[in-house]
Amino acid sequence: MLGLGTLARVASEVRRDIAAARERDPAARDVSPVEILATWPGIHALLFHRLASALHESGVPLLPRTLALVSRAATGIEIHPAAKIGRGLFIDHGSGVVIGETATIGNDVTLYQGVTLGGTGFQTGKRHPTIEDNVTIGSGAKLLGPITVGHGAKIGANTVVITDVPANSTVVGNPGHPVKVEGRRPEGPDADWIHLPDPIAEAIASLAGRIAELERRVSEITGEVPERIAQVTPLRPTRGHSPAGG
Length: 246
Fold this sequence. Notes:
By secondary structure, this protein is α/β, with parallel strands linked by helices. The protein is 33% helix and 14% strand. The strands form 3 sheets. It has a 6-stranded mixed beta sheet with strand order 3-6-9-12-14-15. A 5-stranded parallel beta sheet has the order 1-4-7-10-13. Strand 14 (170-172) and strand 15 (177-179) form a beta hairpin. The protein is elongated. The model has no long low-confidence stretch (mean pLDDT 84).
């Protein structure tokens, strides 16, 4: 049953959650822990979940789901009481976040608004993602099914992930593709979504380069100069200063 030891564990986990918010949210760095506890929706959702999870593990009926329902109404964040969440989760803003029943989240994970850790189909058993430690998931990303996201991975905003993600990789696109950022594999929630590679644009640029080479060879054979050489103009720079301060 729910005892003093369980309540002490919940209190310790909430303190770690508050510390995570101060570390990873620039808006919280000059704010007292009491104010964060009182006004941060992500902290409220985690507090509700820690309590609901403890009650669920103790076999208490009805109350865990009731707490989850109240939390969703108050914060816009839906976390199933059976979901397993490690220490130091930070949910930034949080509106629209959904964490399913069999989801597992490791330590020091960062989620932005609109993230879904969802299931697929009507199968039973494990049907939601497993998120390992130090993972950052961008706004609007959808992770579906019993996949595993490896340690230190980053999921770009609005990415749809339906397969396992290697550790320390960055995934973007729909469906998600693992990529690197400027040849390195950064770790930590720097939130620099501006400089993520675009695998679709890179594929189009590669095709355009091959077409340009074919046009050059044809012009050498025929002696005719093509009116235009195939090329792709980038819509945005892929290098430069990070607006996230990284």
